[in-house]
Write a structure and sequence with these properties.
This protein is α/β, with parallel strands linked by helices and 340 residues long. Helix content is 29%, strand content 22%.
């Protein structure tokens, strides 16, 4: 994001730890460090993809952004206002501007409410319009996301998976938000339906100009919808840059490993990534007992002594390209691709 563009939302030093209790009445036995110091910003009208393996803290970061859970430390600034410490009443106006689309479209819908009531509920909560105006608004939202207005009386179980996700999108649009957090919104859908939902999200962004934080583990989906991509590992962002640069010239070994894990790499003009690289081995370490230094060093083929003792800072190595890796901080550089 250009420094000249004022961010819609920015986070600084964002952290979230969950305590582990020892028995029912015991003391604190440890902490799960889900988010470990995030720094990023999202511009108006921009989609920032947040990608990484399961358990790296992506969904927790999205919930922290919306204050659905409280941060342990750090700032969340919405148009310059730090919302991390606001009480419930002061936070209410910001709720209208920030919404969420959940991963499981069925679990996020109330089975006892009709589809029309689900989509219209945010309008009722925030006291927007009278009953007739709300009915008109809900009907328009149904039509905009590809549902028939006469389906308002149906219940969630009467819709297909793709239709349920369209309901979730309509509900998120009801208050006219500026930011929508999409938490794996297509991972539970069939491949053909995924494309429809992604295209709908992109069309809506073009029409209304809001921003997305798009959380996903699917690199193909992230490449399709994102303007910039942040790669997350064990609670930290290890690489952040624009979409084209990340997929064509990644700098962090973890990003390289994720790209190489794609079953059928996309063939790119000019050759793309053809070199053979060292494979990623092992599992993500426990967020309870994190490795010292760089969190990725136990699985990194290029780790050296400094990686095991010193945490790399996320720094800009080329314009707009930030990496947290000692291989790119002015020290000795090693090739990320193996010869032959």
């Amino acid at each position: 994001m250009s420094a000249a563009v004022e961010p819609l939302i920015a986070v600084e030093g964002l952290r979230k730890s969950f305590p582990i209790q020892r028995g029912l009445f015991g003391g604190k036995a440890g902490e799960v460090h889900a988010v470990d110091g995030l720094d990023f910003a999202i511009a108006p009208g921009e989609t920032l993809g947040l990608v990484g393996e399961s358990g790296c803290g992506k969904s927790t970061a999205g919930r922290l952004l919306l204050r659905l859970i409280e941060p342990t430390a750090g700032r969340v600034s919405y148009r310059g206002t730090d919302i991390a410490g606001l009480d419930r009443a002061a936070m209410l106006p910001f709720r209208q501007r920030m919404q969420m689309i959940h991963q499981d479209p069925y679990a996020s819908l109330n089975p006892r409410m009709s589809a029309g009531d689900i989509v219209g509920e945010p309008l009722v909560i925030h006291g927007i319009g009278n009953a007739a105006e709300r009915r008109e608004k809900v009907a328009a939202l149904f039509a905009r996301v590809g549902l028939r207005p006469d389906q308002q009386q149906n219940y969630a179980h009467e819709f297909s998976g793709g239709q349920r996700q369209r309901l979730g999108i309509a509900r998120a649009l009801a208050l006219g938000p500026e930011l929508i957090v999409c938490d794996e919104p297509v991972s539970a859908l069939d491949v053909s339906i995924r494309a429809q939902i992604l295209n709908l999200l992109m069309d809506l962004q073009d029409e209304f100009g809001f921003s997305y934080l798009f959380v996903s583990h699917d690199l193909a989906v992230v490449e399709h919808i994102s303007h910039r991509v942040a790669v997350m590992y064990l609670g930290r962002i290890v690489e952040l840059t624009d979409r084209a640069t990340l997929f064509d010239a990644p700098l962090h070994p973890y990003t390289e490993a994720l790209l190489e894990a794609v079953p059928v790499p996309k063939v790119r003009p000019g050759g793309g990534r053809k070199a053979r690289r060292k494979p990623l081995v092992g599992d993500v370490p426990s967020p309870i007992n994190r490795p010292r230094g760089c969190h990725f060093h136990p699985r990194c083929a290029y780790a050296h002594d400094r990686c095991r003792s010193e945490e790399p800072a996320l720094r800009e190595v080329t314009p707009g390209h930030q990496v947290a890796c000692h291989l790119h901080d002015g020290g000795p550089r090693l090739p990320l691709a193996l010869p032959g």
